[in-house]
Design a protein that fits this description.
It is built from one helix and six strands. The chain is mainly beta. Strands 1, 2, 3, 4, 5 and 6 form a six-stranded antiparallel β-sheet that branches.
């Protein structure tokens, strides 16, 4: 993920849920700019996931093959989506 896309003064909002494809990487909440829809992106394998649930990440797609624009989600957007439980703790703890 291109770090230059980060909102100024804000850190990326990360999820503690494991990537269902590679099991590695930083999983960051992103927003599709045209629709406002949230998804999670893995910076290691460039997987995207449209479904975030207690069972994990699902609804896989490859982010490098998309033709639409996206930006990092703000913390308030993630909270408004009811996904506070999936946010990685700021101290780096899960």
């Amino acid at each position: 993920m291109d770090q230059s896309r980060a909102p100024r003064g804000n850190a990326f909002v990360e999820s503690w849920l494991a990537c269902a494809v590679c099991g590695n990487g930083i999983r960051t909440f992103m927003v599709r700019t045209a629709t406002g829809r949230l998804y999670v992106e893995c910076d290691e394998c460039l997987s995207g996931f449209t479904v975030v649930s207690g069972a994990g990440l699902d609804g896989h797609f490859w982010t490098d093959l998309t033709t639409w624009e996206a930006r990092p989600a703000s913390r308030s957007e993630v909270l408004a989506a009811g996904l506070a439980w999936s946010i990685r703790d700021e101290r780096g703890d899960c």
